[in-house]
Design a protein that fits this description.
By secondary structure, the protein is of the alpha+beta class. Helices cover about 35% and strands about 40% of the residues. It has an eight-stranded antiparallel beta sheet with strand order 2-3-4-5-6-7-1-8, with helices on one face. Helix 2 crosses helix 3. The chain starts with a helix and ends with a strand.
Length: about 210
Amino acid sequence: MLAGRVLHQNIFVAGLRLSKALLKLEVNRRHAAIYRKFMSMPGMGGKKSKKKEYYGRKLVGYSMEQMFNVVSDVENYTSFVPFCKKSDVFLKLPTRMRANLEIGFPPVVERYTSDVTLERPTLVRAECTEGKLFDHLQTVWKFSPGMADNQQTCIIDFFVSFEFRSLLHSQLAHFFFNELVRQMENAFIQEVANRYGKASVKSRMLKNVHFNS
Protein backbone atom coordinates (compact mmCIF):
# COMPACT_ATOMS: atom_id res chain seq x y z
CA MET A 1 0.00 0.00 0.00
CA LEU A 2 2.89 2.34 0.83
CA ALA A 3 4.52 1.49 -2.48
CA GLY A 4 1.29 2.35 -4.28
CA ARG A 5 1.07 5.70 -2.51
CA VAL A 6 4.69 6.54 -3.45
CA LEU A 7 4.02 5.54 -7.05
CA HIS A 8 0.95 7.79 -7.10
CA GLN A 9 2.98 10.72 -5.73
CA ASN A 10 5.72 10.18 -8.29
CA ILE A 11 3.18 10.13 -11.11
CA PHE A 12 1.62 13.35 -9.75
CA VAL A 13 5.02 15.12 -9.55
CA ALA A 14 5.96 13.94 -13.03
CA GLY A 15 2.64 15.19 -14.38
CA LEU A 16 3.13 18.57 -12.69
CA ARG A 17 6.62 18.93 -14.18
CA LEU A 18 5.32 17.98 -17.61
CA SER A 19 2.54 20.59 -17.33
CA LYS A 20 5.07 23.29 -16.39
CA ALA A 21 7.32 22.29 -19.28
CA LEU A 22 4.43 22.42 -21.75
CA LEU A 23 3.36 25.82 -20.40
CA LYS A 24 6.90 27.15 -20.82
CA LEU A 25 7.02 25.87 -24.39
CA GLU A 26 3.70 27.59 -25.14
CA VAL A 27 4.91 30.89 -23.69
CA ASN A 28 8.14 30.68 -25.71
CA ARG A 29 6.13 29.84 -28.81
CA ARG A 30 3.93 32.92 -28.32
CA HIS A 31 6.95 35.16 -27.69
CA ALA A 32 8.58 33.84 -30.86
CA ALA A 33 5.40 34.54 -32.83
CA ILE A 34 5.28 38.12 -31.49
CA TYR A 35 8.96 38.64 -32.37
CA ARG A 36 8.42 37.29 -35.91
CA LYS A 37 5.47 39.65 -36.34
CA PHE A 38 7.59 42.56 -35.05
CA MET A 39 10.42 41.70 -37.44
CA SER A 40 8.06 41.41 -40.40
CA MET A 41 6.77 44.98 -40.07
CA PRO A 42 7.79 47.44 -42.83
CA GLY A 43 11.29 48.75 -42.29
CA MET A 44 12.16 46.11 -39.68
CA GLY A 45 15.01 43.66 -39.94
CA GLY A 46 17.85 43.67 -42.40
CA LYS A 47 20.76 46.07 -42.67
CA LYS A 48 18.77 48.93 -44.16
CA SER A 49 16.98 49.64 -40.87
CA LYS A 50 20.16 50.00 -38.79
CA LYS A 51 21.22 53.45 -39.99
CA LYS A 52 18.88 56.41 -39.71
CA GLU A 53 19.43 59.74 -41.44
CA TYR A 54 17.56 62.99 -41.86
CA TYR A 55 18.24 66.08 -43.91
CA GLY A 56 16.16 69.24 -43.84
CA ARG A 57 16.57 72.74 -45.26
CA LYS A 58 14.57 75.62 -43.84
CA LEU A 59 14.34 79.41 -44.14
CA VAL A 60 13.97 81.06 -40.70
CA GLY A 61 13.43 84.63 -39.56
CA TYR A 62 16.65 84.89 -37.54
CA SER A 63 20.21 85.79 -38.44
CA MET A 64 23.04 83.31 -38.88
CA GLU A 65 24.71 84.68 -35.75
CA GLN A 66 21.58 84.21 -33.65
CA MET A 67 21.09 80.63 -34.80
CA PHE A 68 24.78 79.85 -34.27
CA ASN A 69 24.70 81.27 -30.73
CA VAL A 70 21.87 78.93 -29.69
CA VAL A 71 23.05 75.76 -31.42
CA SER A 72 26.59 76.17 -30.06
CA ASP A 73 25.35 76.80 -26.50
CA VAL A 74 25.97 73.19 -25.50
CA GLU A 75 26.31 73.87 -21.76
CA ASN A 76 22.64 74.94 -21.66
CA TYR A 77 21.20 72.09 -23.75
CA THR A 78 19.50 70.61 -20.70
CA SER A 79 17.25 73.67 -20.47
CA PHE A 80 15.76 73.43 -23.96
CA VAL A 81 16.83 70.32 -25.92
CA PRO A 82 14.30 67.45 -25.63
CA PHE A 83 15.58 64.34 -23.83
CA CYS A 84 18.93 65.95 -22.91
CA LYS A 85 19.55 65.10 -19.24
CA LYS A 86 23.16 66.28 -18.95
CA SER A 87 25.47 68.63 -20.88
CA ASP A 88 28.79 69.32 -19.18
CA VAL A 89 31.37 71.16 -21.29
CA PHE A 90 34.95 70.36 -20.24
CA LEU A 91 36.84 71.88 -23.19
CA LYS A 92 35.89 75.15 -24.89
CA LEU A 93 37.93 76.76 -27.64
CA PRO A 94 36.92 79.18 -30.41
CA THR A 95 36.77 76.40 -33.01
CA ARG A 96 36.26 73.29 -30.88
CA MET A 97 34.33 72.07 -27.88
CA ARG A 98 34.07 68.80 -25.97
CA ALA A 99 31.21 67.88 -23.66
CA ASN A 100 29.80 64.93 -21.74
CA LEU A 101 26.17 64.45 -22.69
CA GLU A 102 23.41 62.20 -21.50
CA ILE A 103 20.29 61.62 -23.55
CA GLY A 104 17.29 59.65 -22.42
CA PHE A 105 14.19 58.74 -24.36
CA PRO A 106 12.59 55.40 -23.49
CA PRO A 107 13.86 52.80 -24.00
CA VAL A 108 17.25 54.40 -24.72
CA VAL A 109 19.60 56.11 -22.27
CA GLU A 110 23.08 57.00 -23.51
CA ARG A 111 26.03 58.80 -21.95
CA TYR A 112 28.74 59.85 -24.36
CA THR A 113 31.33 62.47 -25.20
CA SER A 114 30.46 64.93 -27.96
CA ASP A 115 33.25 66.42 -30.05
CA VAL A 116 31.95 69.72 -31.47
CA THR A 117 33.46 71.65 -34.39
CA LEU A 118 32.62 75.37 -34.59
CA GLU A 119 32.93 77.78 -37.50
CA ARG A 120 31.23 81.02 -36.50
CA PRO A 121 28.61 81.77 -37.75
CA THR A 122 28.23 79.09 -40.42
CA LEU A 123 28.73 75.63 -38.89
CA VAL A 124 28.17 73.54 -35.78
CA ARG A 125 29.05 69.85 -36.19
CA ALA A 126 28.87 67.35 -33.32
CA GLU A 127 30.10 63.76 -33.32
CA CYS A 128 29.67 61.10 -30.66
CA THR A 129 32.81 59.56 -29.23
CA GLU A 130 33.23 57.14 -26.34
CA GLY A 131 29.61 56.04 -26.44
CA LYS A 132 28.26 52.56 -25.69
CA LEU A 133 24.99 52.51 -27.65
CA PHE A 134 25.99 54.17 -30.91
CA ASP A 135 28.33 52.96 -33.61
CA HIS A 136 27.96 56.39 -35.10
CA LEU A 137 26.14 59.63 -34.20
CA GLN A 138 26.54 62.95 -35.98
CA THR A 139 24.54 66.17 -36.16
CA VAL A 140 25.41 69.02 -38.51
CA TRP A 141 23.95 72.53 -38.58
CA LYS A 142 24.94 74.81 -41.45
CA PHE A 143 23.82 78.44 -41.65
CA SER A 144 23.87 80.53 -44.82
CA PRO A 145 22.45 83.94 -45.81
CA GLY A 146 18.69 84.07 -46.26
CA MET A 147 16.68 86.76 -48.04
CA ALA A 148 18.80 89.43 -49.74
CA ASP A 149 16.59 92.26 -48.42
CA ASN A 150 16.36 90.93 -44.84
CA GLN A 151 19.48 90.41 -42.75
CA GLN A 152 17.35 88.88 -39.98
CA THR A 153 16.87 85.70 -41.99
CA CYS A 154 19.04 82.73 -42.79
CA ILE A 155 18.86 79.26 -44.32
CA ILE A 156 19.42 76.27 -42.05
CA ASP A 157 20.71 72.96 -43.38
CA PHE A 158 20.18 70.38 -40.66
CA PHE A 159 21.54 66.84 -40.90
CA VAL A 160 21.33 63.94 -38.41
CA SER A 161 22.83 60.49 -38.86
CA PHE A 162 23.11 57.66 -36.34
CA GLU A 163 23.48 53.93 -36.08
CA PHE A 164 23.02 51.84 -32.96
CA ARG A 165 25.33 48.97 -32.09
CA SER A 166 22.28 46.91 -31.14
CA LEU A 167 19.92 45.71 -33.86
CA LEU A 168 17.05 45.83 -31.36
CA HIS A 169 17.65 49.52 -30.60
CA SER A 170 17.86 50.19 -34.34
CA GLN A 171 14.50 48.53 -34.85
CA LEU A 172 12.93 50.52 -32.01
CA ALA A 173 14.36 53.73 -33.50
CA HIS A 174 12.20 53.07 -36.55
CA PHE A 175 9.18 54.14 -34.50
CA PHE A 176 10.44 57.32 -32.83
CA PHE A 177 13.15 58.71 -35.15
CA ASN A 178 11.08 61.13 -37.24
CA GLU A 179 9.27 62.55 -34.21
CA LEU A 180 12.52 62.88 -32.24
CA VAL A 181 14.26 64.81 -35.02
CA ARG A 182 11.25 67.08 -35.53
CA GLN A 183 11.11 67.90 -31.82
CA MET A 184 14.84 68.57 -31.65
CA GLU A 185 14.88 70.89 -34.67
CA ASN A 186 11.84 72.82 -33.42
CA ALA A 187 13.33 73.13 -29.92
CA PHE A 188 16.35 75.04 -31.20
CA ILE A 189 14.22 77.43 -33.24
CA GLN A 190 11.91 77.99 -30.26
CA GLU A 191 14.93 78.77 -28.07
CA VAL A 192 16.10 81.39 -30.59
CA ALA A 193 12.63 82.96 -30.36
CA ASN A 194 12.82 82.95 -26.56
CA ARG A 195 16.15 84.77 -26.65
CA TYR A 196 15.72 87.14 -29.57
CA GLY A 197 11.98 87.66 -29.91
CA LYS A 198 9.56 87.22 -32.77
CA ALA A 199 10.89 85.96 -36.11
CA SER A 200 11.21 88.51 -38.90
CA VAL A 201 9.50 86.11 -41.32
CA LYS A 202 7.57 82.88 -40.95
CA SER A 203 9.75 79.77 -41.16
CA ARG A 204 9.24 77.60 -44.20
CA MET A 205 10.66 74.27 -45.26
CA LEU A 206 12.72 74.38 -48.44
CA LYS A 207 13.65 70.72 -48.52
CA ASN A 208 12.76 67.83 -46.24
CA VAL A 209 14.07 64.33 -46.82
CA HIS A 210 13.96 61.26 -44.55
CA PHE A 211 15.93 58.26 -45.71
CA ASN A 212 17.73 55.14 -44.59
CA SER A 213 20.98 53.86 -46.00
